[in-house]
Design goal:
Four copies of one chain form a homotetramer. Chain A is mostly beta strands. Chain A is 14% helix and 40% strand. In chain A, strand 5 and strand 6 form a beta hairpin.
């Protein structure tokens, strides 16, 4: 039943604009992302990393949603995170994402998670650092090659 | 890429055993389900209700996973919940589920969420009550009839 | 350990500006908010409602985070939702929030969840409607009166 | 408002029984833990690891909830995960947890996540491996020493 509301897909020329190699995205912390210690639960950072890397892709004019409709699925094979300072409810964090390496079959990203607003005041407080390795699979879940366009220069 | 690890499906005779009309399931509260007030966040109850109604189904010998592989998708059309008393981290809650009504196109469940263990001691503290209405859709997301077997007596 | 990074709180004059009675907020759908049907899981709408009502509050210059530091906790006592049309990954939804009623001890909100961007194109597709009733509790979890400032005109 | 339903805490002799150095816990995959690829989203594994290590603790007769009431908070400082094979909705996974190292200020765990039931049939399919490093903080969020009892032999 996947994507049942989207019937026709106009293919875009994914080669036109390569995704940038770095970028940043802001996210305001949700109440439900915080735990009884009054800080963001460590699992709640993981979706922010995903937002960081998909927003990189979006800047090239091709969303990850579009990639999936073309049969390109990116799966997380490896994830590393260091949590340095707590993030609080209502903070605004900036996810700073960089492509560290890309090969025929995988792409590695690095992330910095920085608190840039707390209590309504601007700040710059590094909270966490992370990296992920994505592999590419097809509709049947078989490992496949990354589109050349994604591999970067 | 849905269900890519499950290639062949042996159809079961879903008519053999009707799902029971009521039942209960226990869930231990996860740390990440609790919020800065030190209690379970209201959104975290919603997956418990889903566990309650799918466990009812499972007792008939047919899992919801199997229904989906047969092309039967149940979607939540309506959800009502009353939150009466807080549930704490590490509590064990019992979800008591009952089929309230079932027609050709929808099925209604009622739920009681009761804390049955707190701090290692048995208790019986009603925490929330809820109800849902599910509709049935096919692989393309079109509303369709519930399998007769699901509609109950 | 709540709020351990915030030691001193400068009290604000919460009476200065009343929160508006209606407003709207946009949220882009996260991949992890979608389920195997390829649509947003019904539980994932609930945090969006919370964002809607806390953003209303923020417009008055007082965040919910600040209210909690003053010892005012708002808890969800009642939640009703109708899910009308699926929301997809990468959609932008607008949460349109309105205060329906406010008394000495509770405040009711109504919400419309509308898809306003899909596949990069603007649209206006109502997806869900919901309402919540919040009660006010103090640091010890005892039901207390809402700050007069919150009760509206 | 933390723990507002628990007023008095009877201190237990935490030295009586050391937590075991390894153990396992079973979790059935929830529908909302799965994503549009039809498999468990990588962020949903993280709470399972937390269940694994808190269940280890519980076997000693002292729950993590109790530790927090005594003012001992364990925070995740480091997390590494390798995702090898997809986990599906309704699978039963076993989280196999082992204390790898413990010092005066931190404790390291290793985890294996293994699918042990799929489609109602027993299996043994390693899906992921992970490790975490926890640090200990007090009520004010200051790094402090781990209780000796937790450090192991």
């Amino acid at each position: 039943m996947k994507g049942h509301a989207e019937k026709s897909v106009v293919p875009v020329d994914v080669g036109a604009v390569r995704p940038p190699l770095s970028g940043s995205t802001r996210v305001r912390v949700r109440y439900c992302e915080c735990d009884p210690m009054g800080v963001v639960h460590h699992a709640a950072y993981i979706p922010w990393l995903e937002i960081g890397r998909t927003d990189l892709l979006r800047e090239s004019g091709v969303s990850y949603a579009h990639l999936e409709r073309m049969g390109v699925f990116l799966v997380v094979a490896k994830l590393d995170a260091r949590f340095r300072r707590p993030v609080l409810y209502d903070d605004v964090v900036e996810v700073r994402t960089r492509v560290r390496a890309a090969s025929r079959v995988k792409i590695e990203h690095e992330y910095g998670v920085v608190v840039v607003e707390r209590g309504g005041k601007a700040c710059e407080e590094p909270a966490a650092a992370a990296s992920t390795t994505l592999a590419c699979v097809d509709r049947e879940g078989r490992v496949s090659e990354l589109p050349e366009w994604l591999r970067g220069p």
